[in-house]
Write a structure and sequence with these properties.
The chain is 42% helix and 22% strand. β3 and β4 form a beta hairpin. The chain is elongated and about 80 Å long. The structure holds guanosine-5'-triphosphate (GTP). The site of guanosine-5'-triphosphate has 21 residues, from α1.
């Protein structure tokens, strides 16, 4: 396992992993309202630990691991939430374009943070949807499950939002355990792989359609020339 504090956002490395075609690399952005546990999730995933207090330095971390015999590298952008709830900061468009997939975090004890996630799903769809025919990979995470006695968002609401928005869903506690955090990151990795395969397939079909159109277009033109 390799964990590296990579760089400040905007200075990320090239996406080709040292020219090795067997490596798989994915850019992941964590978004959500203030205090929901974005840094806690990131640190749990990177170090398996929960340290309780986290600074507010925005960073991209690289984490590489062997999964099913293949080296997988996650570039994780742990964003610091702006005071307005995470939707209107100047960096958001940069993050939306950079990321291959998103983990949208809310706290199950903070209904306003759930509303922010609903907005962010729409925002991501709008930003990505123009160029991309395939839905962007998103996992919604309800964090702080250990505080269920203070819950204001039911599991059902989280699940329904994810279902309606075609996203994955996990309810976890970054404070209590590593396993749920791991499942959320790996769930996103699966979605990113599926999306890449679908995009490749769509590009392949487009290529075939273009070639067929070119051949038939040429034949039509040849026939027209012969008539003239
Ligand atoms: N009880 C409990 N507390 C948590 C959990 N995850 C994070 N926290 C606490 O929630 C507070 C905020 O966590 P952060 O990880 O800094 O939250 P953030 O979303 O990165 O916050 P910003 O940087 O302000 O956007 C900290 O005091 C954490 O210790 C959890 O699963 N359970």
């Amino acid at each position: 396992m390799v964990v590296r504090v990579n760089q400040r956002p905007g200075h990320q490395r090239s996406r080709t992993m040292d020219g090795n075609p067997h490596k798989f690399e994915a850019n992941i952005a964590l978004l959500g309202a203030e205090n929901v546990g974005k840094s806690a999730l990131t640190v749990r995933f990177l170090t398996r630990r929960f340290i309780g207090e986290y600074g507010d330095i925005e960073s991209i971390y690289t984490h590489c691991d062997m999964i099913d015999g293949r080296e997988i590298c996650f570039n994780i952008w742990d964003s610091v939430c702006p005071q307005n709830g995470g939707i209107a900061d100047h960096n958001i468009n940069k993050r939306l374009q950079w990321a291959d997939g998103f983990i949208l975090v809310y706290s199950i004890c903070d209904r306003a943070s759930f509303a922010v996630v609903e907005q962010q799903v729409q925002r991501i769809r709008r930003a990505k949807g123009i160029k991309c025919p395939v839905a962007p990979p998103i996992i919604i995470v309800g964090n702080k499950r250990d505080l269920r006695h203070r819950r204001t968002v039911s599991s059902e609401e989280g699940r329904l939002l994810a279902l309606a928005a075609d996203c994955g869903f996990f309810e976890i506690s970054a404070a209590e355990n590593y396993h749920g955090v791991l499942l959320a990151f790996h769930g996103l990795l699966d979605l990113i792989r599926e999306t890449r395969a679908l995009k490749k397939g769509a590009a392949g079909i487009k290529g075939i359609v273009r070639s067929v159109s070119a051949v038939f277009g040429r034949k039509r033109n040849d026939a027209k020339d012969a008539q003239d």
